[in-house]
Amino acid sequence: MIKILNSEIKNFDRDLDSLLSKRKNKFKLNSISVIKIIKDVKKNGDKAVLKYEKRFSKNKIIKPNLKKMNKSIQSLDVNIKNAIDLAYNRIYKFHSLQKFKNISYTDKFKNKLEYKYVPIESVAIYVPGSTASYPSSVLMNAIPALIAGVKRIVMINPGSKGKLNPAVLYAARKCKIKEIYSIGGPSAIAAVSYGTKKIKKVDKIVGPGNSFVAAAKREVFGDVGIESMTAGPSEITIVCDKFSNPEWLASDLIAQAEHDNLAQCILISKDKSMLEKVNKEINKQIKDLSRSQIAKNSLINNGILIKMSSDKKIIEIVNKIAPEHLELNIKNYKNIVKKIKNAGSICLGKYAVMAMTDYNVGSNHVLPTNSSARYSSGISVNEFYKRISYINLSKKGFQSLGPSVITLSNYEGLSGHAKSVEKRIRRK
User: Fold this and answer.
1) List 95, 259, 325, 365, catalytic entry
2) pLDDT tens, 17-28?
3) What does the pLDDT look like over 351-374, one tens digit per residue?
4) Residue-level pLDDT at 159
5) What is the pTM of this model?
6) What one-character-per-residue DSSP string does 167-188 give?
7) Does residue 325 have an active-site annotation?
8) Which of 235, 274, 303, 385 has the highest local Cβ count within 10 Å?
9) In whole angstroms, how large is the CA radius of gyration of the chain?
10) What backbone torsions phi and psi does residue 391 show, to the nearest 5 degrees?
């Protein structure tokens, strides 16, 4: 089912680059139709939003009825509520440790410099929906914003025929979210970016989505903030050895593949027989999956099994792929983990699996995709802060530092800067 590459064969690097680029190019193609939708919403507001909701989700409303939402929450199974409560508590506790301390520094001239963390005022969290609903994504996006002190948290969640999932609504209530819109896709991203009569625009948008949502966020960036990474269709890379359990490995790959047709699953090993065993297990297990067609499409089009010759080469390839999720399902993971520099999250050992991190371990599951782990990180409390510098200069400090500023600004050809300082320097 899955393509197999061997690092010992000629043109391996070229073939791997080709497979990775093929998937990335699909994201770029989606941008063309996305731009058209964004322009339509900017021009026609709610009318355009509803047009796309009717077309893609058979939805005729923008804002769901409060009474219906409350009734929906009341109908939710108590076991689901308990599971959400457990996840909430663990995620909140871990993310509370991420708070930053303000910095204050006074030098010998009594110049005072401060660096303060100020919460962003309004944020929209995108929670995937329609074909599937993810209360876990509500928690992962909203809890860090709550801890940072964001005053207005908006949830955009595409429903089916206007109906939102009760577990998603319960998670939203848990996170004190009062502003909810039953919309999704690029039109929803445009609506919260530019505002409509019914929706007030926000300062930043966060949250995972399909390739169209990811493309829309890239298009509106600059007019509104987005995460400092690409949170698009999911990815996993697993490194295994002869001691790994092929049945477990297959289930880990399938778990990632069921997210999206464009999800990517990569398995790496020095043991060729292990790769073959996992491939057989995938064919066996995928038949019983509720989202089997999505998983099949993902694995056939984007899945890769890679036979590697050495740990050194494994480290090199993992850092090149820069996966969203990395599982080191190997006996000697301590020997290579310190050399892995590019990954959104790293699961160590046979029991630390991606499926656990998606729910209640406490770490965040909104992570950099599409190789953006090379330069960015997953969602944290830091995502919802702005940092502002405060400068208070004493007269003595100004007089002492000013001449050096004049020298440098004149050297750079910025005479206006020099004069701004000269006018305040005490005349001798």
Assistant:
1) 325
2) 888 888 777 666
3) 999 999 999 999 999 999 888 899
4) 78
5) 0.90
6) HHHHHHHHTT--EEE---HHHH
7) yes
8) 235
9) 25
10) -125, 125
